[in-house]
Structure prediction request, 187 residues.
Amino acid sequence: MIVLATVFLGVSLSACTHGPARPSRPASGGTASMPLSLRCSDSVGQQGQDHETVVGGVEGLVLPNSDDPADLIPVRAGDGTRYYIYKAFLAVSAAAAPFATVAITRPAGARLWYGSPSRIGDLLATRSGQALVTASRSTVRLPVCGPRFTGFVGGIIVSGPACVTFKVSSPVARAATVRVPIGPGRC
Prediction:
């Protein structure tokens, strides 16, 4: 079953904006623009559709309650910059084969972090969050690995509440765009 993973923390945040709260970007240098290409071994396996909205062949981007500040987890990068993470489970449809690409187009500082469950666990276990921030990217490629939905763990990093715009595409599915509030506010 596909679920949206959340952690409830009492985090008081300001209203949603259409741009980053800070000009800084989570990943340093040119690494943020390099797509993160996942492999089938990074997935948590085949999933049935959970009656969530499928956008461009990907389920899990329409995030109910993503505007709840309690769902944001604060982390600090090595330079002391504060970021917030929102956990979001994504699953790519077999109809999008051989892969689907999810890219954040706005705000410029928002990033995605996805990978194998053990890799994500290691990144979340770091004290400062620096490893998670460094590993994040603006684009992730999700492979189709079977006849059902292929699931991946990860989430979104923002520097403050934001209206995040995702573009989803694949070689066979029609490209689609979705806007999602991360933290309090509306898109």
Residues 1-29 have pLDDT under 50 and may be disordered. The chain has two helices and 13 strands.
